[in-house]
Amino acid sequence: MTTHYLTTEELAERIKYDPRTIRERLKDSVLLEGIHYIRPFGGRKILYLWEPIERDMGMHSENGAYAIPMANGGVMNG
């Protein structure tokens, strides 16, 4: 299986998010190091792994279809 590595800008283009949103809000809260992204050779550069991101976007979309967002950040399932 081939892994597709993406920079922040390339990921932003694919999922239609601003690169700053990925860096500031999604990284480490939704996108997890070792699962969704890596730091090759222990450096500062981040490469995102497309296949796990694509898989998890679909799962969360399906699971949250009847969820109502709450003010405290949780969800109520309807």
Biggest pleated sheet: 3 strands, antiparallel
The strands making up the biggest β-sheet line up spatially as 1-3-2
Find the structural class using helix and strand composition.
alpha+beta
Round the Cα radius of gyration to an integer and report it. Answer: 14 Å
The N- to C-terminal Cα distance equals 38 Å
Strand % is 15-25%
Task: Tally the beta strands.
Answer: 5
Helical run tally: 3
> Per the principal axes of the C-alpha atoms, what is the gross shape?
globular
Count of spatially separate domains: 1
Order of helices and strands: EHHEEHEE
Average pLDDT score: 85
Which bin fits the share of residues in helices?
A: 25-40%
Low-confidence stretches: none
Describe the secondary-structure layout.
Elements: E1 5-6, H1 8-15, H2 19-26, E2 37-38, E3 47-49, H3 50-63, E4 67-69, E5 75-77
Antiparallel strand pairs: 1-3, 2-3, 4-5
Provide a concise account of the structure shown.
The protein has 78 residues and is of the alpha+beta class. It has one domain. The protein is built from three helices and five strands.
Explain what the structure shows.
- By secondary structure, this protein is of the alpha+beta class.
- Helix content is 38%, strand content 17%.
- The protein has a three-stranded antiparallel sheet with strand order 1-3-2.
- A hairpin with a 5-residue loop joins strand 4 and strand 5 (75-77).
- The mean pLDDT is 85.
